[in-house]
Amino acid sequence: MIFLVGCTIIILLTVVAIVRSKKPLKTLCKEAKYDLVYNYIGSRAILQDIIMRGSNKIELSLKSGKNAIITGGTRGIGLEVIRMLLKSDINVIIGCRNVKQGELLLQNFRNDGIKSGNIDVINLDISVMDSVRNFAKTVKEKYSTINYLINNAGIMFGPYIETRDGYESQFSTNYLGHFLLTHLTLPLLKAAGTKEEKSRIVNVSSCAHIAGEINFDDINNRHGYIAGAAYAQSKMAQILFTKYLDKLLQIEEANVQVHAVHPGIVNTDLFNGTNLKKCMPLIPSLIFKSPLKGAVPIIYACLSPYLEGKGGTYIVNCKVLATSNATDSEVLQEELFNFTNKLLNITAFGSGD
Ligand SMILES: NC(=O)c1ccc[n+]([C@@H]2O[C@H](COP(=O)([O-])OP(=O)(O)OC[C@H]3O[C@@H](n4cnc5c(N)ncnc54)[C@H](OP(=O)(O)O)[C@@H]3O)[C@@H](O)[C@H]2O)c1
Ligand SMILES: *[C@@H]1O[C@H](CO)[C@@H](O)[C@H](O)[C@H]1NC(C)=O
Ligand SMILES: *[C@@H]1O[C@H](CO)[C@@H](O)[C@H](O)[C@H]1NC(C)=O
Ligand SMILES: *[C@@H]1O[C@H](CO)[C@@H](O)[C@H](O)[C@H]1NC(C)=O
Ligand SMILES: *[C@@H]1O[C@H](CO)[C@@H](O)[C@H](O)[C@H]1NC(C)=O
Ligand SMILES: *[C@@H]1O[C@H](CO)[C@@H](O)[C@H](O)[C@H]1NC(C)=O
Questions:
Q1: Ligand 5 centroid vs 153 CA: distance in angstroms?
Q2: What's the 330 CA to ligand 5 centre distance in angstroms?
Q3: Which pLDDT tens digit goes with each residue over 43-94?
Q4: What is the model's pTM?
């Protein structure tokens, strides 16, 4: 009896929620499908982090005199990436929205006893294309070589918001801004690389790419917006681009290689707003990776000598793993590359202007 009443209440609440959301049934069904898929992918990835924890290691070596750019990084995984870059005596150029907060970091790291490396903070909102151009301009005025470009800044889920340039915010932040930044800084990366030690571009992607589809007809996913679908699309786009650009660079014989990384399922503010963190806030702190452990595969992709000459690869817990079959399509890679160049008015990718 109590069970029946319970079920009736749940069904009623669900119906009320559906009616109140005013979303078409098709969108609701698709939303439910993405919820299921994310639960599946997420659980599998958590298990993978546990099984592979032995391989998620890196030995730091000194890389004095080298320059790295990281987008975001005043908190979350990026903060721990910066810590390890400093320990390797690298000069870290942080592109972030809150310059004051970025400038405080160096003192904090020095207080933690890290004496090597340096930090240079330059304003960057990666979701705004003019900001990306200004950032790149400043970098070029100050530096002639960049050894590592770490495309880290990212957002997940959230409501439908369009940026100033008219793009959905996840697409714009996770993919488009980084595409432009890579285009603008490629000459500096090429200038820093040598045959023996190539420069590296590291895209912080995600296992969520598996659920991705590139919706060329509505790249913003404006019609029937589903946050999970837009996130997966942006992360899949990063991987398609990683593979395509690495091939281009190989043909050119440029001394630059590109990697995509899934950092693991990491307990950061990225999960603020998800049902899991809202309803069961303790779970992430218990079973997710720490930001430090999430930073390890990113540093591995930047610095590991084992990856020399092995660009175009996808790194999980410091191992090279396969990506979804859909991302292996060379036609799709090229289609997205052409499409993005057109969006950004780029005529010669990598020319830097
Ligand atoms: N956590 C995970 O489990 C997980 C799993 C797979 C992939 N990832 C990826 O890992 C990367 C880092 O995530 P996280 O977990 O460290 O998230 P986080 O703690 O939320 O940090 C995100 C960082 O991105 C920056 N950022 C966001 N929008 C920006 C913008 N428009 N311009 C400049 N910076 C911006 C944030 O800076 P502000 O302080 O200015 O907001 C912050 O530094 C993301 O690309 C994410 O997709 C994370
Ligand atoms: C991924 O890497 C390519 C270069 O390989 C870059 O152009 C692209 O913008 C990157 N994507 C993101 C969003 O990190
Ligand atoms: C995420 O939630 C935590 C805990 O409630 C809060 O301290 C933090 O400021 C939030 N971060 C963001 C970016 O909303
Ligand atoms: C992916 O491709 C491999 C080999 O090409 C094939 O064995 C596998 O079944 C495919 N997986 C999916 C999910 O289509
Ligand atoms: C991409 O653009 C190039 C140059 O314009 C063209 O030759 C190629 O066919 C295009 N590829 C796709 C998949 O559209
Ligand atoms: C690309 O060029 C078109 C027309 O020349 C212009 O309307 C648009 O704003 C430009 N887009 C960007 C991202 O610069």
A1: 29
A2: 11
A3: 999 999 999 999 999 999 999 999 999 999 999 999 999 999 999 999 999 9
A4: 0.91
